[in-house]
Structures are given as structure tokens and as C-alpha cells.
Write a structure and sequence with these properties.
213 residues; four-stranded antiparallel sheet; 2 domains; single chain
């Protein structure tokens, strides 16, 4: 039974017929309870779940990075859900059941701040990945004080190592320490920037797959 808490014109919580009411982050909502489906495992449903699982596996290890990277797109949804939505639409390739992530089209940070110029990543020492870029300060809205954000995703170990507030844009290099047992593994590397006041972020840029020394 539903409960009306703010009068007849206010929101309600609970269930009335096939309508479910609730409140999320101060926003009243209503949704229709889905009807029973005779075959919940239709080809379309299985296909969509497979895509969803592919993106979830990619993003879950970096959820704390995404909280920063997608904060400006968390409009009536969480940062993680916003990243899921974007990457489901833009970064899944293949056909069922062999879906994979197109890292070049994936975003783990999204925003209007000027992005990386000539980004690259290498590994020449055990336990370390070196990210480099060209200083494009004062081009567009890029500022010398913007901080770099770097991430290395190890799919084989289902782990992401990252920094969300590294050196300034003008420094042109950032070292990322990774576990020693990453040695010999391939990791997918991304670079983005965040403004000094933390309000603006840049679209992340995939800078390639690196074999850790």
C-alpha cells in the first residue's frame, strides 16, 4: 500500500496498483511495475545484458576515478550510471556473445576542459608507467594549473590504478606506480585533466596499450 506524505499533490512511497512511488536525492518519482514476461530471456534482452556486463566489467574497477571524471554529467543519475550510459552507446564493439570495449572511443572522464595534446604512455621500469603529453596551456580554456588525471586498466587482473590529481599541465610528464605483479601484463592507458578548482574536467584520451616492464 502506498503512503502519501505531502498531500494529494505530493509524492508518495510504496505501491498503488502497478505504480511504484519513491524519492531519490530529493526527487519524487513514479514508475510502472513491469508486467510479467513470458520469456524474460529473449534474444534482445540477452544481447543487451551481454553488452551491459561488458561495460560494467570495464568501469567497475575505476568507479572512484569516474566519480571525478563524470561529475559534471551526473544529472538526475550517479556519475557511474552516466558513464555506463555513454559507454554502452559509444564504446561497445563486436556481436553477441563476443562483445568488447573499443578503448579509443571509451570515455572515463567527460567535460569541456581542453584535453590532452600528443599524449603517450610507456613502461621502462618494473612497477611504473610513464605518461607524457605536450603543454597546451592557454589554448582554448586550458590552464597551466590544470592537474593531470592518469589511469592504467589491467583487464587480465580486473584492476585499475590511477591518479585523479597529478602534476600540472605544464609539467608534461606523470609517473604512475603499479603493482610489481603487473610486470608482463598489457594495460590500457588514459589521460585527462581537471581544473585547479576541481570544477571542470576534460574528456579522457586513450593513449594506447602498454606492456608493463
Amino acid at each position: 500500500m502506498g503512503k502519501i506524505s505531502q498531500g494529494i499533490l505530493g509524492g508518495f512511497s510504496g505501491k498503488v496498483g502497478n505504480v511504484i512511488g519513491g524519492n531519490w536525492k530529493g526527487i519524487d518519482y513514479m514508475r510502472i511495475k513491469p508486467a510479467n514476461v513470458a520469456n524474460p530471456q529473449t534474444e534482445g534482452q540477452v544481447d543487451q545484458r551481454s553488452k551491459f556486463s561488458t561495460v560494467l566489467q570495464f568501469l567497475q574497477p575505476m568507479k572512484d576515478f569516474i566519480k571525478v571524471g563524470f561529475k559534471n554529467y551526473a544529472i538526475k543519475m550517479t556519475q557511474f550510471n552516466s558513464a555506463m550510459s555513454y559507454n554502452l552507446k559509444n564504446a561497445v564493439i563486436g556481436s553477441y556473445p563476443n562483445y568488447s570495449i573499443d578503448y579509443a572511443n571509451a570515455l572515463i572522464s567527460r567535460g569541456s576542459l581542453a584535453g590532452v595534446l600528443n599524449g603517450a604512455a610507456t613502461s621502462s621500469a618494473t612497477g611504473s608507467i610513464d605518461f607524457i603529453w605536450s603543454d597546451n596551456s592557454n589554448v582554448g580554456n586550458a590552464q597551466p594549473t590544470d592537474k593531470v588525471m592518469v589511469l592504467a586498466y589491467n583487464k587480465s587482473k580486473d584492476v585499475a590504478i590511477f591518479i585523479t590529481e597529478g602534476v600540472e599541465r605544464t609539467m608534461e610528464a606523470q609517473s604512475l606506480t603499479v603493482p610489481n605483479d603487473f610486470s608482463g601484463d598489457s594495460v590500457e592507458c588514459f589521460i585527462a585533466f581537471i581544473s585547479d578548482d576541481g570544477l571542470s574536467v576534460a574528456n579522457s584520451k586513450y593513449v594506447g596499450s602498454v606492456t608493463v616492464a
